[in-house]
Amino acid sequence: MAWSGWFHARPVARGVWLVAEPGHVNSFLVAGRDRAVLVDSGLGIAPIRRVVEALTDRPVDVVHTHAHLDHVGGDAEFDRVAIHPAGVAELRAGASASERRRYLAHTRRMLTAADAYRALDRDFFHLLSADSDPRPLPPGVDETTWAPGPALEPALLADGDVVDLGGRALTVLHTPGHSPDSVCFLDEHAGLLFGGDTVNTGPTYAQAPESDLAAFAASTARLADLADDVHLVLMAHFGRAVAEGAYLREVAAAFARLLAGDAVLRPARDCDDDPVREAVFDACSIYL
Q: Which of 83, 93, 202, 263 would suit a FRET pair with 33, their CA atoms being 20 to 30 Å apart?
């Protein structure tokens, strides 16, 4: 199902929808019998709640994989949000104007490059889809008009907590590394893992001051132990939002190799245009 404007939404499993801001970030709506949750609320560049309410008639709360600005921007549209305790301070503080300015500069660079990329993809690669093809910014968006309001005081999520939706449950897995507050959500019955920024098919961001490479490796190893029971991994970024459970082993192996010194490094730049080192593996890469 395609949405005009900023979002693209489509079903990915029974009672689960991808709600993409193509080229930016993916949220996921998960509905049970009694209620639903939105796993992350996106950038807040355009209202997300009306998209969600068109997909389900259940009452919807927000549960966060972590507090970074591209995952929490729609919080003010909802009555209840929840996050790991390590993310509360960042959630309360919100993103600064300089953070928003840097992100919009990245967006404009991406949009400038998009036409050439589309032409190459059309002629050779055939990878772009509505999930990933970036859309123009809504009119008038800049770092002053894009200023998401704060959420109410959040509820807290701890490792092992169960989010009961009625006939469907999500288990909280604390997976620090990308950030201290990072969590994943496991729908054990359906075999679905919502990976946040702990698992991605593009570069994994481990370069920030709050990132912890050893913790990241331990978290991905923990997820790899679940691979046989996970059918789909649902991810927050880049062109491939959905992968098979076996991908968890590939990501964990990449972190293990990196810690062992077995990695090829090349210069790269992250979405803030900051210089980073990129450890390159067959299945993924890691920014340092």
A: 83
Closest CA to 21 of 4, 42, 51, 52: 42
Contact 5, 128 (CB under 8 A): no
Tokens 């893992």, residue located: 193
Q: What is the pLDDT of residues 212-244, one digit of tens each?
A: 999 999 999 999 999 999 999 999 998 789 999
SS3 content of the chain, % helix, strand, coil (to 5): 25, 25, 50
CB atoms closer than 10 angstroms to residue 194: 28
Judge contact between 162 and 169, C-beta under 8 A: yes
Tokens of 182: 């990072």
Tell me the pLDDT tens digit for each residue of 21-73.
Answer: 999 999 999 999 999 999 999 999 999 999 999 999 999 999 999 999 999 99
The CB density around residue 281, as the number of other CB atoms within 10 Å, is: 17
Residue ranges and CATH numbers for the domains of the chain are 8-94+146-287 (3.60.15.10)
Three-state DSSP class for residue 120: helix
How long is the chain? Answer: 288
SS3 sequence, 173-210? EECCCCCCCCEEEEECCCCEEECCCCCCCCEEECCCCC
Q: Buried b vs exposed e over 38-74: b needs ≥16 C-beta within 10 Å? A: bbbbbbbbbebeebbeebbebebbbbbbbbbbbbbbb
* Tokens read off for 211: 């990132």
Name the percent of the chain lying above pLDDT 70. 99
Q: Token match 């993103």: residue?
A: 95
**165 pLDDT more than 80:** yes
Does 144 or 107 have the greater pLDDT score? 107
Instruction: Concatenate the DSSP letters of all residues of 86-115 into one string.
Output: GGHHHHHH---HHHHHHHHHHHHHHHHHHH
The tokens describing 74, both together, are 């729609």
